[in-house]
Design a protein that fits this description.
Elements (H helix, E strand, L loop, with lengths): L15 H15 L12 H21 L2 H29 L3 H6 L21 E4 L6 E4 L8 E8 L8 E2 L3 E3 L5 E3 L7 E10 L2 E2 L6 E4 L2
Length: 211
């Protein structure tokens, strides 16, 4: 059976946190990617839109007023539209080559499902929560998972790797609250996807300094 592989460019039903995670994943994957030497739109425009959306999302969560929410929604539309244009560029440039498509960080359509261990989660994002003493951890959704496991920790003086704590189980890739955390301490978090066939590799650690 032949599948037509395309980069997914629709984000209207994607939650705010997931859109931000996806934008981070794509920007990281596309930067310096030899398959896409001249991305359209330029990655600098997408980065600016990502930063603007992230800032206005943080403000909207703190104040939750109609003006702040409207500004956040406007910034979201700009970012989603740029990502949609970039997805079209990726699809056109890749010309059906799945390896090239996947290297962009975009999810693909019409991808055949296999009975395998799920893929490593991408796009880890650790941010400060609405309340002091909280952090919120998210990763990009993984196809074929049953649940996720995540863990967090800190680095001691001279440590090259975080000292990880307990492993927590969740069914959601987004909005996992980590608490309590100590102010002015840098925390690290990572996740892996799990199903009946096994567990993926841990995601790359995301970090944030707590307030």
């Amino acid at each position: 059976m032949n599948f037509k592989h395309e980069a997914r460019g629709g984000f209207s039903n994607v939650p705010d946190d997931e859109l931000l995670v996806h934008a981070n994943t794509v920007l990281l994957a596309m930067e310096g990617n030899a398959h896409f030497p001249t991305p359209t739109p330029d990655l600098a425009l997408v980065t600016t839109a990502r930063d603007d959306f992230a800032a206005k999302l943080a403000i909207a969560r703190k104040r939750s007023g109609p003006e702040e929410t409207s500004a956040k929604n406007d910034a979201r539309l700009v970012l989603a539209d740029l990502l949609k244009q970039l997805a079209f560029h990726v699809t056109t440039t890749a010309a059906g080559n799945l390896t090239v498509l996947l290297s962009s960080g975009f999810r693909t359509t019409a991808y055949p499902q296999r009975r395998t261990v799920p893929a490593q989660p991408l796009g880890g994002l650790l941010v400060r929560g609405r309340q002091s003493g909280q952090l919120v951890f998210s990763v990009q959704k993984v196809a074929g998972k049953l649940y996720y496991e995540y863990r967090y920790g800190t680095k001691g003086e001279g440590d090259t790797e975080p000292q990880w704590g307990d492993i927590f189980v969740t069914t959601s890739s987004l909005g996992n609250v980590i608490a309590p955390v100590e102010p002015k301490v840098e925390y690290y978090a990572q996740a892996r996807a799990c199903n009946g066939y096994g567990k993926s590799a841990w995601s790359e650690p995301a970090s944030c300094i707590a307030l």
